[in-house]
Structures are given as C-alpha cells and as structure tokens.
Amino acid sequence: MKKILFASSAIAAVAFAGQASASEPIKLSVGGYMEQWVGFADQDIDAAGGRVNAFQSDTEVYFDGRTTLDNGIEVGAHIELEGETSTDQVDEQFLFVNGGFGRIEMGKNDSVADSMGITAPSVGPVNPSDGGTEDWANLTNVIDTVPSSGDQNRFSYFTPTMGGFRAGVSFADDSTQNDTVGSGDNIVSGAVTFSHDFDGVTLGVSVEGENQADDNWYGAGVNVGFGNFTVGGSYGKVDPDVGKETDAFDLGVTYAMDAASVSLSYAYQDDSQDNIENQGLSAGLVYTLGAGVSWQSSVFWFEEDKAGSASDNDGFGAVTGLRLAF
Fold first, then answer.
1. CA dihedral sign, ordered 36, 59, 141, 267
2. Has residue 197 been placed in a domain?
3. Does residue 20 fall inside a structural domain?
4. pLDDT band for position 2 (50/70/90)?
5. C-alpha–C-alpha distance, residues 62 and 258, integer Å
6. Can you give the pLDDT at residue 243?
7. Name one GO molecular function term (predicted).
8. C-alpha to C-alpha distance for 143 and 279, rounded to whole angstroms
9. Cα distance between residue 110 and residue 96, in whole Å
10. What confidence tens digit (pLDDT) does each residue in 160-195 have?
11. DSSP string spanning 47-80?
12. What residues make up the domain containing 139?
C-alpha cells in the first residue's frame, strides 16, 4: 500500500507542477541542419525512370523550448520541420519531462530501441548500414541492424543513469492516429545501455528489441574508444511470426585527428524471407571547416544478390558535399 501511495504522490507532483508560477515561460529556440551532396554511382541496373539524381539534399529545422519549474522538474518540447518532403512536413514532435526520476517523452518520436541502439562507428554521407547507400543506388533492401518501427505517436520512459547503466521502454498504439490508419498492433520497445571510461578506454554497449503483434526484432552493439580510434559493431535479427528471419551485422573503425576524422565500415544482411543478400563497404572523411560547417566525403561499394534473379545489382560510387549545423 505504501508503494502505491508513493507512486501516486510522484505522479501528482508532476501533474500539478503548473502551480510553480515563478518558472520562466517556454520560449522556442531554432536549430537544425542542412546537407547538400553531389555524387554518382556506377551500377549494373538502373530504375525504370533512369539513374539516381547526382544531387541530393536533406534539411531540417528544429524548434526547442524548455523551462524549469520551481520544484526542479524540467518540461520542454521538440519539433522537427522537414525542409524537403513529399509526406509529413513535421518529422518528429514530442514533449519531455526531466527530473530525478528520469526522462519521459510523449509524442511522435523514435522508440527507445532506436534512439539507444549502438551501431558501428562511421563518418561521411554514406554508411553501408542504414546510411544512405539507397539514395545513390537502386537497391531493393536496406541493411539495418536497428530496424525499428520509426516515428510513431508513443510514450517513452528513460531511467536515470546509474553506475553507467541506463534503461528505457516505449509503447505505441499503432492504430488510427492523426488521420493516419496504422496496423492496430501495439508496439513495445526496450533497451539497456552501459557506458563507462576505464582510464582512457571508453566502452559503450547496448541491447535492444521491439515487439509488434507476434513479430520481433532484437539486437546488440558495442563501441570501444582508445586514443584517437573508435572500433565497434552491431548485430540485429528480425524474427517474424510467419516467414523466415533476417540477420544483419556491421563493423567499423574511425580515427580522429584534429579537425578531421576518417572511417572504414562494412555491413552485411541476409534476408531469408525474400532470398536477398546485401553487403556494402564505405570509406568516409569529415573535415571541420568552422563552427557548424563540415566538408564530408564517402567512397562506397555495394552488392545485392537476389537468388534466382537476373536483377542482381552491384557497383561503386562517390559522394561529397557540405553539412551545416545551426
């Protein structure tokens, strides 16, 4: 009974925190990024409409606001406005509540499995694991070791970091939402991470998973940093209720030197359901030109093998451009 009363008191403290009238009103600040790329891919097959455009771009504008109530609880909002889209103009939008109890997020956002998942280190505009190869080459599948449900209207809770450990859980009701009809299946996500510095050697580990109806995916990742190097990788498995499994992994290493960082990364995926194997390799460079301005480049190779199909595709490419963060 005491535990129930304590939990009720904690919820009430958040719910009635509005009584703290002396807190500052929320004012939105503006941030975001702009990426402009030029590149090419030499590949075996082209899409029906022709080759992929030699110019790609991605721009988002962020609106952030927060205030700290008199009881010490921080409340705020985050909104992402897409600069170029054919679907939703607003990408993510959610409110958050921070305190000694942890962090609560509510709105349209990634799951904790997605946001907390660790993957192989990589720099540059193209990463073989869910990093833009599909923007330059005509591929059926995208390698992804963290294939989460993406942005959904959901509730997420993150624990405080204790001894380097942090956990999170998300719940989404994927039904009719904001004039969009979903599958109607609940989506439950969970993740645990560990991060620590052992006398100059940094370690980051994640274990994550997600369930939707009777379909599951789960994975794990690790990054180790020492000196100017960071090495690591991740593994993910999709285990559907009906059909065959999909396995994916990635490996990478980065080296940082003053204003520049370079990387080499590899990824592989075996989709047993569709009998498609994908693999890719990329080398990347990021050079900081000034505050918020970086020149980035990648050279990459890819291969997609479809069993019994004449539409296999492989090739290579190169991309370069600027990224502005503001």
1. positive
2. yes
3. no
4. very low
5. 28
6. 82
7. porin activity
8. 8
9. 13
10. 999 999 999 999 986 555 555 566 678 999 999 999
11. BTTBSPPSEEEEEEEEEEEEEE-TTS-EEEEEEE
12. 32-325
